[in-house]
Amino acid sequence: MSKWRIGDVTLTKVVELEVTGGSRFLLPQATPEVVRPIAWLQPHFADENGRLRMSIHSFVVETPGRRIVVDTCLGNDKQNRRIPHWNDRQGSFLADLTAAGFPPESIDTVLCTHLHVDHVGWNTVLRDGKWLPTFPRARYLIGRTEYEHWSASAARADMKYALADSVKPILDAGLAELVETSHRICDEISLVPTVGHTPGHVSVRIASRGDEALITGDFMHHPCQIAHPDWDTTADSDPAQGIRTRWQMFEQLAGTPVLVIGTHFAGATAGRIVRDGGTFRLDVS
Question: 2-283 belongs to which CATH class?
Answer without folding.
Answer: alpha beta
